[in-house]
Specification:
Blueprint: H1 4-27, H2 32-56, H3 67-96, H4 114-120, H5 126-134
Length: about 140
Amino acid sequence: MLDWTSFFPYTLIASLVLFAIGIYGIITCKNFLRAVFGIEILLLTANLLLLSFGLGSSEETSLISDPFAQTLSLMIIAVSAVFLILGSSINKLLQENNDEILDFTFEAEDIPTKKSEEQEEPTKSPDTIKGDEEE
């Protein structure tokens, strides 16, 4: 018979892999919906860890071992569903307005600096402007 110690390392490894995928999805996203799915993967990881810890917390090795862990897991699923609905509706509104958020792709040349602006456009005094107009 399998007890919780025989499969717990595998669930821990699986949850670490899912956590890494979720963080990677959040960091590298250019679209709002991808960030929402990255957070959903993190919530899935929390469910997996919570249920695996809940199964191992009792002396019996049955699927109905700790109702507290299962209750928290159901609450996480409900919060996850609400978050997914709100995230998809926000994404729909962003697509209708052709707006993008979380767009972190920029080059170093795109950042304005005071020195580069002063070098490109030297300021003219009123005397030099009048002299240019007369010529």
